[in-house]
UniProtKB/TrEMBL annotation:
<protein>
    <submittedName>
        <fullName>FAD-dependent monooxygenase</fullName>
    </submittedName>
</protein>
<feature type="domain" description="FAD-binding">
    <location>
        <begin position="3"/>
        <end position="312"/>
    </location>
</feature>
<dbReference type="InterPro" id="IPR050493">
    <property type="entry name" value="FAD-dep_Monooxygenase_BioMet"/>
</dbReference>
<dbReference type="InterPro" id="IPR036188">
    <property type="entry name" value="FAD/NAD-bd_sf"/>
</dbReference>
<dbReference type="Pfam" id="PF01494">
    <property type="entry name" value="FAD_binding_3"/>
</dbReference>
<dbReference type="GO" id="GO:0004497">
    <property type="term" value="F:monooxygenase activity"/>
</dbReference>
<keyword id="KW-0503">Monooxygenase</keyword>
<dbReference type="InterPro" id="IPR002938">
    <property type="entry name" value="FAD-bd"/>
</dbReference>
<keyword id="KW-0560">Oxidoreductase</keyword>
Length: 367
């Protein structure tokens, strides 16, 4: 039986373990945290990711615990629509996206794994292309090492050397909140150097995020955030007022440069370790799920790593660049450029939007 070690027990790592187990591999997942958890935020699962989850055998469970995203679009900070997504056409053309709490998605993926596959509290110190992993409990070897250990990946050093994450120029706050009055309109709002997004969760709560231009490592409080968005359209101030200061996440936004390869020797990278991207397309986790399915399918092939790299690197790097470009446009602070941007959004026909989306959402799970 072929053996694999997956470094990282997040969404991408657990999905990779599922994909490899389904192909008959013996798998161990090394997770440095004592407990694997995703708190304080939701995740949008687009139809391409849902197809990946179907392949992994957990798509139905995810849909059952998620909420269908029935409305979307972009407004300005006054609440005037700049662009709206035709939900019926989206559903017919691609399928319906689902929003789920990250903790619930991770629970579903982990529950599908046999007991003992995920080993928590193990910190990986070094990985080698010969399949050796040095960690806090000793040394292990496997025929495949999967680097799913995030944007500051230790495993990646064996493949590409030291890679420094790049600050995107903006910082993000995320929260899951409850409002007394249910919302019927969701999506993003774009202002001057700032954006706000909201999406429904199945229990009636709302996943929301706020993004604004700031120097790297800037400090701030929830009170500062509420002041910054106080004059934005409803229900943005109410959502921020309802946020629990102890459950709000604040992170600067980073990506990584395009890597020359995702594989070396017995190592394959996936998710943020391979292609950490800005969240502007909602595709970071989705691409990690795609990675897992493709790696599971190809890993045992004689030229599997090379085929995995050829399959995944062009696609994920295209999506990463597109996401960064959208962030640049969304974070404009020049009033004349904002006026041009907003006008362009209003004039872009729905057909052009769907053609653009097709390049990402029309992803086949098979060869």
């Amino acid at each position: 039986m072929s053996t694999a070690i997956v470094v990282g027990g997040g969404i991408g790592g657990t999905a990779a373990a599922l994909a490899l187990l389904a192909r008959g591999w013996s798998v161990e997942v090394f997770e440095r945290a004592a407990e694997v958890a995703e708190v304080g935020s939701g995740i949008s699962l687009w139809p391409n990711a849902l197809r990946a989850l179907d392949t992994l055998g957990v798509g139905a469970a995810v849909r059952a615990q998620g909420a269908a995203e029935v409305s979307a679009g972009i407004r300005d900070d006054r609440g005037r629509w700049l662009s709206r997504t035709d939900a019926a056409t989206m559903r017919e053309r691609f399928g319906t996206p689902v929003v789920i709490h990250r903790a619930d998605l991770l629970d579903i993926l982990r529950s599908a794994l046999p007991d003992g596959v995920v080993r928590t509290g193990i910190s990986v110190k070094e990985a080698s292309v010969d399949g050796t992993v040095v960690h806090s409990e000793g040394t292990s070897t496997a025929e495949l090492i999967v680097g799913a250990d995030g944007i500051r990946s230790v495993v990646r050093r064996a493949v590409c050397g030291d890679i420094t994450p790049r600050y995107a120029g903006y910082t993000a706050w995320r929260a899951v909140v409850a409002l007394d009055e249910p919302l019927t309109e969701f999506g993003e709002s774009w202002g001057r150097g700032a954006r706000f997004g909201m999406a429904p969760l199945p229990d009636g709560r709302v996943y929301c995020f706020a993004v604004y231009n700031a120097p790297e490592h800037s400090t701030g409080t929830l009170a500062d955030l509420r002041t910054r968005f106080a004059d934005w359209h409803r229900p943005i101030p109410a959502l921020l007022a309802a946020a629990d200061p102890n459950a709000v996440l604040h992170n600067d936004i980073y990506d990584i440069p395009a890597l020359p390869t995702y594989t070396a020797g017995r190592i394959a990278l996936l998710g943020d370790a391979a292609h950490a991207m800005t969240p502007n397309l909602g595709q970071g986790g989705c691409q990690a799920l795609e990675d897992a399915v493709v790696l599971g399918r190809l890993a045992a092939e004689p030229d599997g790593p090379a085929r995995y790299d050829r399959d995944r690197r062009p696609r994920t790097q295209m999506i990463s660049k597109r996401s960064a470009d959208i962030g640049t446009v969304g974070q404009l602070s020049s009033r004349p450029l904002i006026a041009l941007r907003d006008t362009a959004l209003r004039l872009t026909p729905a057909s052009a939007q769907f053609r653009s989306m097709a390049k990402i959402l029309d992803w086949p799970t098979g060869p």
